[in-house]
Design brief:
The complex is a heterodimer of chains A (136) and B (560). Chain A has 5 helices and 5 strands. Chain A is of the alpha/beta class and 136 residues long.
């Protein structure tokens, strides 16, 4: 059976507008051949979860530079689960101190990416870890 | 011609000989790489000589310090009269936490204050808004009402210390709080000095802290310019900022061009909307640039910036006051040049960048702390950053003479190149109908997206080097101490806000907000009403909600 194209959403929860990383990643995912959706800045966890379900994505990438990831990332996962979207894999990135990694993994994030990582390495990680959901 | 014909003849003969020698040398031993360009990918020659600056017009291009076009600086005495202002950007947690750090910085020899607000404050939300959850005090200080603001400026002599506030969509409200606080402390508005960033165009282009659409956003800015001109003459009501444009991924030329074109948009709006004469307000316009890692490109950019602005003000807007021709600017070293890997290397990057800002003739400087790529800076990291400026000012000798790089074939040629390429962009944006029109069609946003993506690809391929990231990497680095913002801050701030809401005069609040709404609808200047509203303890969000209601909300077009 042919593998369908991976659908990925890049989202920016919270009020922080530092979107350089998110936009570079969105373009990188598009160039990697994924169906890519970028939400733009200033989304609430509720809005992001609803959009991810609506768009039926395989993977949701959250970007945060403000230090509010400790609340925003777990909250987004929680909202996804409330909508029954257990199959959407969540990854995150931004200015995230190593001390917070465990808290985010415990909250259900599958991968965390911090400054300095190459785009190709992120794509490689996705190829190895994210499987498109075959529902239809 | 800048040189005599005799010298040019001699020079070209010698240049030919040198070029032959280079060819032979390269044939024996190839260059280390093919591409030699700035961090912005501007190609750089192996050597610069008389040929590269032969068309310079000394009077119109270089001149003298304090004389048009100010390429060599605004101040006739350079840094001998006074150094640039050592202005470290700071703010975190509660107003009390930030006030304590301010006193610490002033005790350590800092000469001006600069405020970082948290995201809810920056976006015009109170701490009790659901959208503010998790953000309170995280990357700046949380301010909801005038009561918080009074704590922030406690013990600060407002008639002596100038304060810069990095605030954009709700700039009217925070500035109103500053004015109200001064009045309460008995300092007349004519005595207070400082800056509000208040530059919305670069928010749409780069930093994405926005509230209302571009057109009414520019209207509110013109209100502050008018109010400042009439009542707060020592205040810089806009800091037209390239910093964020650069951080979002632009090249040096794009930073220069978009920032100056933004400045021109504001000048045109104030003249058209308020009927002020350009010389009444232009002397209070200020600018803010990034000092990135490419040393000479940054120096050339800053020298070109002063020259372009002087020419634009004199020729395009017919300003007659020399002060209107001056471009005064603050500089911050480049956050995006710092690395989370081997963070102590950031001290060296910041020192180099700070030196370029000084050689570029900045009036004010913030140096980033080595840990800012990981979190808000610790006290110790801030101290090293401040000491970096003090060492440059007082040990290195670079302040002995004014604009020491003037006349360098390379620096002058690069300055010309910057100016030429910036004007190309400026004219292109003119042709689109101005910056608001250009933003509406996504032009500057997409230019930045392209440049940022290209740069990331260059890093990933090793074409551009970041030490510790794609070269000289070490595994398993030791961790460095980081500042943590405790989650208790949010709870305490909520309690304080609720306390103010309980005790204030709700009738006065309602009346103030009604007056604000009328002012907005009638296109009156909002500032007097805004000062009244903050004095009556209207919250930041209550006032911003009036703006949202009357002017509408802007949504991120999410371009990539």
């Amino acid at each position: 059976m042919a593998k369908r194209r991976l659908r990925i959403m890049v989202a920016k929860p919270g009020l922080d507008g530092h979107d350089r990383g998110a936009r570079v990643l969105a373009r990188c995912f598009r160039d990697a051949g994924y169906e890519t959706i970028y939400t733009g800045c200033h989304q609430t966890p509720e809005e992001i979860a609803a959009a991810a379900v609506q768009e039926d994505v395989d993977c949701l990438g959250l970007s945060c530079m403000s230090g509010a990831h400790r609340f925003l990332f777990p909250e987004t996962v929680k909202k996804l689960r409330e909508l029954g979207a257990d199959d959407i894999q969540v990854i995150g990135g931004g200015i995230i101190p190593p001390a917070d990694f465990q808290l985010l993994y415990d909250a259900g994030l599958k991968g965390i990416f911090v400054p300095g990582i190459a785009l190709d390495d992120i794509v490689k990680w996705i190829e190895e870890n994210i499987v498109p959901n075959i529902k239809d | 011609m800048y040189f005599t014909k005799e010298l040019m003849d001699k020079s070209s003969k010698m240049a030919r000989k040198w070029e032959d020698e280079v060819k032979k040398a390269v044939a024996r031993h190839a260059d280390q790489k093919d591409d030699w360009s700035t961090v912005s990918s501007l190609p750089i020659n192996r050597l610069y000589g008389p040929e590269d600056i032969k068309d310079i017009n000394f009077e119109e291009d270089i001149s003298y310090p304090g004389q048009f076009p100010y390429t060599r600086g605004n101040q006739v005495t350079g840094y001998r009269g006074r150094y640039w202002t050592f202005r470290m950007f700071s703010g975190f947690g509660s107003a009390k936490d930030t006030n304590e750090r301010w006193h610490q910085l002033l005790d350590a020899g800092q000469t001006g204050l600069s405020t970082a607000f948290d995201f809810p404050t920056l976006m015009g939300y109170d701490t009790d808004n659901p959208k503010a959850r998790g953000e309170c005090g995280k990357c700046g200080v949380a301010i909801d009402t005038l009561e918080d603001f009074m704590v922030l400026v406690d013990g600060i002599p407002m008639d002596k210390i100038t304060t810069s506030m990095t605030i954009n969509p709700p700039a009217t409200v925070l500035w109103a709080m500053y004015c109200a606080a001064a009045e309460i402390k008995g300092v007349p508005l004519t005595k207070i000095g400082g800056t509000i960033q208040n530059d919305m165009l670069k928010e749409f282009i780069a930093q994405k802290t926005f509230m209302c659409p571009p057109e009414p956003s520019v209207k509110l800015i013109s209100d502050t310019v008018e109010f400042g001109t009439r009542h707060v003459p020592k205040w810089n009501t806009i800091s037209i900022s390239g910093y964020h444009i650069r951080e979002a991924g632009s090249t040096a030329v794009q930073e220069l061009a978009f920032t100056l074109r933004d400045g021109m948009e504001y000048v045109e709006d104030v003249i058209k909307r308020k009927g002020l004469d350009v010389d009444e307000f232009a002397p209070r316009l200020s600018f803010f640039f990034n000092a990135h890692i490419d040393f000479f490109e940054e120096i050339a950019k800053m020298r070109a910036a002063r020259r372009i602005w002087a020419k634009a003000m004199r020729d395009r807007y017919k300003a007659r006051n020399e002060r209107s021709w001056w471009m005064r600017f603050h500089t911050q070293t480049a956050g995006c040049s710092l690395t989370a890997q081997q963070p102590y290397n950031n001290v060296v990057r910041t020192a180099t960048e700070a030196l370029s800002a000084v050689l570029g003739g900045t009036q004010s400087l913030h140096t980033n702390s080595l840990d800012e790529v990981l979190c808000l800076p610790t006290d110790h990291a801030v101290q090293i950053a401040l000491r970096t400026q003090q060492i440059i000012a007082e040990e290195t000798g670079v302040t002995n003479t004014i604009d020491p790089l003037a006349g360098s074939y390379f620096v002058e040629a690069l300055t010309n190149k910057m100016e030429e390429q910036a004007w190309e962009y400026i004219h292109k944006i003119d042709d689109m109908g101005g910056m608001v029109a250009a933003i509406d069609r996504g032009f500057p946003q997409m230019e930045l997206a392209d440049a940022a993506y290209k740069f990331q690809k260059q890093i990933d391929s090793g074409e551009k080097i970041m030490v510790g990231v794609n070269k000289y990497v070490i595994e398993d680095e030791p961790e460095i101490p980081l500042l943590e913002i405790e989650d208790r801050i949010e709870k305490e701030q909520l309690d304080r806000l609720n306390g103010v809401k309980r005790k204030r005069d709700s009738k006065a609040v309602k009346k103030s907000l009604g007056d604000m709404r009328n002012a907005c609808k009638k296109a009156e200047n909002v500032m007097p009403y805004c000062i009244e509203a903050v004095k009556n303890l209207c919250t930041l969000q209550e006032i911003c909600d009036v703006y949202r209601e009357v002017y509408g909300e802007y949504r991120d077009p999410a371009m990539y």
